[in-house]
Automatic annotation (TrEMBL):
Originating organism: Physcomitrium patens (Spreading-leaved earth moss)
Entry-linked SMART domains: Cupin_1 (SM00835)
Protein's name in the database: Germin-like protein
UniProt keyword terms in alphabetical order: Apoplast, Manganese, Metal-binding, Secreted, Signal
Highest taxon of source: Eukaryota
Coiled coil: none
Domain Cupin type-1: 66-197
Pfam families given in the database record: Cupin_1 (PF00190)
Record-linked SUPFAM superfamilies: RmlC-like cupins (SSF51182)
Length: 205
């Protein structure tokens, strides 16, 4: 992908999500924690090199994400700006299981390959799409969604969020790895304890 196109894409996505910013508005030019002397801040404070070199997926994984958020060990200058970004690589068959972002809308842009995505609204309607290079898909804040690479080649996607720390709630891990009582699961899913045990097993190892 040509660099000028990538730059235009990043700028466009940033402009799109800033209009939906969900973080509290800053009353200063930018955030600096109370223990930092603002006169010592340099351009490094606004710079992240996380995406340099692309993404290498760890052995045994099929999906890997690099994130730039307002967390202290990431890019704290994003705090209060209502924006954060990520880059995800999906190997063939790689799946980002159903999850939500409680504090931010997600805008996904496909840089390489073809990616199948889906989201479910509050009426339980499922929306699915197969995205190609250059396509953009919006996942509204708080709605359950997923991505899966059903093709034979890797997929790389660039993601913007309308929050400097959108959070992620993974439904499988939250439901079956958080210690919710088995009785609740049996009633909710209308299954017996053996099924519940099987679903919990990967998260209790």
């Amino acid at each position: 992908m040509a660099i000028p196109i990538a730059l235009v894409t990043v700028t466009t996505l940033a402009a799109m999500i800033l209009t939906q910013a969900s973080d509290p508005e800053l009353t200063t030019d930018y955030y600096v924690n109370s223990t930092t002397d603002k006169t010592t801040v340099t351009s490094d404070y606004f710079t992240s090199e996380v995406f340099r070199g692309g993404i290498t997926i760890p052995e045994g994984a099929t999906v890997f994400t690099k994130r730039i958020t307002s967390e202290p060990d990431s890019l704290p200058s994003l705090t209060g700006l209502g924006v954060s970004v990520a880059m995800i690589k999906y190997l063939p068959g790689g799946t980002n299981p159903h999850h939500t972002h409680p504090r931010g809308t997600e805008v996904l842009y496909v840089m390489e390959g073809k990616l199948t995505v889906g989201l479910v609204d509050t009426t339980n309607k499922l929306f699915t799409q197969v995205l190609s290079v250059g396509d953009v898909f919006v996942f509204p804040k708080g709605l359950v969604h997923y991505q899966i690479n059903l093709g034979s080649k890797p997929v790389v996607a660039y993601i913007s969020f309308s929050s400097s720390n959108p959070g992620t709630v993974s439904l499988p891990a939250t439901l079956f790895g958080s210690g919710i009582p088995d009785k609740v699961h049996k009633v909710a899913f209308k299954v017996d304890g053996h099924v519940v045990d099987k679903l919990q097993e990967p998260f209790n190892m």
